[in-house]
Each structure stands twice: as structure tokens, then as C-alpha cells.
Queue: 2 jobs
Job 1
Amino acid sequence: MPRPFIVGNWKMHKTLSEARDLAITVRDGLSTSSDIDVALAPPFTVIGSLHEVLKGSSVSLAAQTMHEAAKGAFTGEISPLMLKDVGCTYVILGHSERRHIFGETDQAVMKKARAALDHALIPILCVGETLQERETSRTFDVVDRQTEHALRHVTPEEASRSVLAYEPVWAIGTGRTASPEQAQEVHTFLRKAVARSHGDSVARVIRILYGGSVKPDNAASLIAEPDVDGALVGGACLDAPSFLAIVAACRP
Ligand code: 13P
């Protein structure tokens, strides 16, 4: 069984002083036991500062997106080299807000996943269907296509270190969580897809997180599902007590 992994995706929230306060409270609120992995994905502007705050702690840093090139004339973009330089361990790729608001394609996620691994960043690869796709029975087709692209140029060894995140678009920021059974159904499907593309041993260890309205009161029942290895938390990670309560609920 993979170790549980809880990631707080801060999205476009927190000024520098607010970010430092939140990160310090999270850092100090976590016990030092190493039975669970925790990462924070703050906005780019505060990553460097939080690296100082979190140095020597058990909390890792993730970025929320990146460009695939190491450098170049790409105004407004951030490269994997830069993320590594300021202390990121992980990078979230293909989040549904990137896909649906900013037009990020499966091809782009494929290139970014390769680039992240080339720069020793661990990709957190997001997949998930819209409400309309679910209602027209296309959930499995959609997550299969997104996962296949994201992992297409990733070796089995790299895939075993990578992270998948199932985030049904209809559950993000809506307060409408997937039921534990709905999450488990898709997670099992994803694990089988990884087994087909990268082998059984990779499928056993790759971490598959659930995201979409995870809160302190539903986290335990989601993580209790055999194929749910952790959570990608949005709104509830902006408040330290609620994020810490989610981490506590997910401890093995
Ligand atoms: P919410 O927890 O606010 O639904 O957001 C989930 C998410 O998008 C995490 O990446």
C-alpha cells in the first residue's frame, strides 16, 4: 500500500504574509511521525519564501503548473528549472482549471509530464470528467484518455514515483463530493489502466489521490477506500485547522 499523501492546492490565494502564516501553522501542527506525506502548492510568488519556512520540516512544496521548456521567450511562464531552484519537489499538471479555463490540452500535459521528470520534479497528474461527461457515461473514456497521454512518455520506474489525481470537475469547489464508492470505482479503473500501460508492479505503488470538495468530515471515508491513496484539497486547505484535520483523518 502506498503511503497516504495529502496535497493542499492553494490555487490563486494568499499574499506573502498570509502564506507564511498558513505554512507555519501547518508545519507546526503536523507531528513529526513519517506515516503520511504532506505537500503545499501555493502560488508561484510565495514558493521561495515558503521554502525557507518549510526547510527541515516534513512538508514539501508543489507548484500548480509550469511550462515545459527549461527557459526561453515565453512571457509569463515558469519553467521546471525555476521550480526546482526554489525548492519544489512536485508540480501539479493538467488541473481541470488549467484544462477548462486556460485550454490546456492532453498533448500539453504529456509534454509537461516529461519535462517535469527530466528536471527531477514529481508530477501530480490530474484527470477528471465534467458533469456532462459523467451524465453521458463518458467518465472512463475521458480519464483513460487523459491518463494515457499524461503517462505516454513516462518510463515504468518514473511512473511508479509519479502521482495521479482523480478530480471530477463537478465536485471541485461545489461542495458536492464524489461518494467513496464513486471515487473507488474510478481509482480502480485508473490503477488497471496503469497496469496495462506500465505493468502491475507500477500500478500497485503509484499514488492515486482524490480531489473535489474534500473536507475534514468526508476525508476519512474517502481514504478508507482501497484505491484512494490520499487527497488533493482545494478550499479546505486555506484554513490551517481544517487542512490539519484532513491530514489527521487520513493517517493510517
Ligand atoms: P476543492 O477542494 O475546493 O473542491 O478543490 C479541489 C481541487 O481542485 C484541488 O486541486
Job 2
Amino acid sequence: MKKIAVFCSGYGSNLQAIINAVKRGRINAEIGLVLSDRVDAFALVRARRAGIPVLFADPVALPDREEFARYVCRQLTARKIDFVVLAGFMRILAPYLIRRFRNRIINIHPSLLPCFKGAHGIREALSHGVKVTGVTVHFVDEICDNGPIISQGSLKIKEDDCEQSLAKRIHKLEHRLYPEAISLLLEERLRVKGRKVYIDG
Ligand code: GAR
């Protein structure tokens, strides 16, 4: 069975959706590690509750991005991790790690990329006044929020939406889309050709 590592920095609702999907047999993998760059991330509590090994990768002890990546890479290799799933991981990974896990790291972003890249996708979509926004699952490459797109889901912004109400609907969409994409990745049905991702079968 393939092993995945999930990287989180915060609340971990996407991690929980992944844990649930594994439990229900919708994702055929073992979560071999939950890694966080924040010691107080609630995601670590969720992982411990589910009996998943956790690791706090301390960015203060590893201030250099390259060193951080080398440390993380050693941990992934030691635990025989096949794929890395970023789920609200708010740190940019150095090219060292991306090269070693080429097309084996995916990310979820709360906007329709390439719009509203960065740490505030929901807020920026709302303040820009777009009528439609959504969620993007993509492979991670050397440029932030840039890699080939695996799947997207859209939703309408309501006139009375605030950041919280919109975030709620975005998260609901994420919790459906991410396990689906992870499952395709694990089944090795995703073929990357240039910027395009083809789904086999
Ligand atoms: C999710 O909405 C995810 O798309 C976003 O952080 C949230 C984490 O929520 N990621 C980014 O903004 C990455 N640029 P969670 O901790 O409840 O899963």
C-alpha cells in the first residue's frame, strides 16, 4: 500500500477529510506522517487522535529554506513516503524537495488559480468583487501556486457573503475535491504533460 504524508499548518479540516476518506476506503493509502511547521496546529491533535505519526518541523531551528527542505526530505525517505499532500501548509518548499518528489507533491488552494495566489485566496476573491470563485488542486512546482492543475471546483459568491460564510462553502468543496484527487494520484491515473494533467481511465 502507498504511503502519504500530509503537511498542515493549522486547523486541519482537510486533513480530517483525508483521514475520514482513508477510513471509509475511498483513499487506498496509509497516512504515514502528518508534518507541521507549527507546534500548536490543531491538525497535530487530529493526527494523534487518529493514531498517525506526527512531526513538528521547527522553522526556527531550521531557518534556512534549503536546510528545512533537506531535513523534511530525510524524514520522508526514512518513512518511505510515496506522495506528499499539502493541506493548509503555509510555507513555501525549497526546490530541493520539489525536485526529489517531482509530480509527487500536491496542494489545495482556495481560489480558481491562477487568480488569487498566496495566503489569502478567499479574502482577495471577495474583496476583488468576483462573482465566481472556487478551489484548485494542483501539482507543486518551483513557483508558488503555479503547478499543473489536477481539478477545480467553482461556486458563486453571494451578495451578502463575508469571509467566514464564503470560507465555509469553500471548505465544504475542498473536503470533497481533495480526497477525489488524492485517490487519482494514488491510483497513478494522473499524467502530467507540460501544463496539462490528463486523467487516465
Ligand atoms: C484551506 O482552505 C486551504 O485551501 C488553504 O488553507 C486552508 C486550510 O484549512 N490553503 C492555502 O491557502 C494555501 N495557499 P484546513 O487547515 O482546515 O485544512
